[in-house]
Amino acid sequence: MKLILHNYRRCPFCIRTRIVLELKKVPYEIVEEPLRVWTDWMLENIKDKRVPVLRVIEGEKETVMQESNEINLFLDKNFGEIEFTPEEGSKEYEEMKNWWNWCADVLKPQIDLYKYGLNLEFDAERNKKDEADLREILQKLEDVLSGKEYLLEDRLTLADIAIIPFIR
Known about the structure:
By secondary structure, the chain is α+β, with helices and mostly antiparallel strands. It has 6 helices and 4 strands. Helix content is about 50%, strand content about 10%.
């Protein structure tokens, strides 16, 4: 099996996947996709131009995956001895998916507002409110992590890995 990761080095979604690949010591090839300057393969094969893209090649069969959390579930299930996924069907598994959604729907949009402004127009006055809102959102993480190292269990899980690149 050959794994090829189409990647942009600063992309937090790509960082998630690289973390799992490295922690699980999975051999992979990396193809850099410079921001908005896509490789020919991306232009020809991926309609929604976003990274990461993981290509899994087994003989003549190629599977293409594009959502970082789903890629990480696949990697965790199929590679390495260490596991980062809570038991499927458990309360922790559902909480992991809730953290993924929180990251996508709450944390990431607020980080973008803080960094880039509304409609990518930075406004110093509005930025003060965006910063305060972001601090309030990050306080949720502080509260959950109070007295413990990880979000869900006494070990690193895909919930933690999903959030780490956004607050590094």
